[in-house]
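User: Structure please.
Assistant: Input sequence and predicted structure:
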Amino acid sequence: MSRRSALNLKSKPIRPETSSRPMLLLQWYDRHRRRLPWRAAPGEASDPYRVWLSEIMLQQTTVKAVGPYFEKFVARWPDVTALGRASLDDVLRMWAGLGYYSRARNLHACAVAVAREHGGVFPDTEEGLRALPGIGPYTAAAIAAIAFDRRTMPVDGNIERVVSRLFAVEDELPQAKPLIQQLAATLLADSRAGDSAQALMDLGASICTPKKPACSLCPLNEDCTARAQGSQETFPRKAPKKSGTLRRGAAFVITRGDELLVRSRPEKGLLGGMTEVPGSDWLAGQEDAAAKQQAPELKGLSRWQRKVGVVTHVFTHFPLELVVYTAQVEARTRAPAGMRWVPIASLADEALPNVMRKVIAHALDV
């Protein structure tokens, strides 16, 4: 479908076979809805806190990965007021391993704002929700629809895929997003907006999958343009992905008996506030010798052992390679300014990002 024809949808009568799409989706959803820990049971009102928490966690993360973290969070902080009273350090520790750590900082800031400025009650409109820290257009629409049944259609990756196939949207992502948003809105039922959105999410997750979609089981299969063309797996169209420039650096793993030297990253920036072992800058084309010169200085430390191999990690905008050096110091060696010793046995309680978990595992052979 071209952009011009799609944008003229409002001026043309809806064909009888397409006007039933929202009802077909809801009928399918009532039979096949996924059971998710944050989703209200049929007939029950959704909890805005659980909807918001799950939506923040699910950004760029899979349902399978989020499940255990969601359960831990609601067990520790059962409502937004409790989360707002928590320290950022505690939130980061609980979040460690889930990735994209700016989400955790925004999560805490949002909880504080809702507790202090809204009496622990989430705003029930998209506009009010978007004024909160860390809540963008999609998340605001998702919370408004699912938690408050506002008639709006959030468009996540699953819905994007379903809609692009249903209408055979030829425009490439991300430029196609406004068009897909408009087309997705035509799939809203007159009521049960939240269920309409979740039906499309579930359809994309379980039936209209990226590869080998189960078209024969889809409630909209008779009206899917891409399926009629036999081209469903080619949608959505995507512009070639640009890979960032490789950055290189060094990580220094220093032990004092059964303790490890760590520090906290600056609050702002990549992995803000997270725990790490000392390291060099991460720069494109950085030579190993230059990176090693940025090693911390400790009394009695004169020799570094370089571990064989490198630790690799891929961030959103760039891949990273780290050379790992290890050293041991005497029992009473003081930590340099801004650093601290922590028991290796308690590292699980530290807010370690995945890249640092890899570094420590590589250095300590665990």
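Residues 3-16 have pLDDT under 50 and may be disordered.
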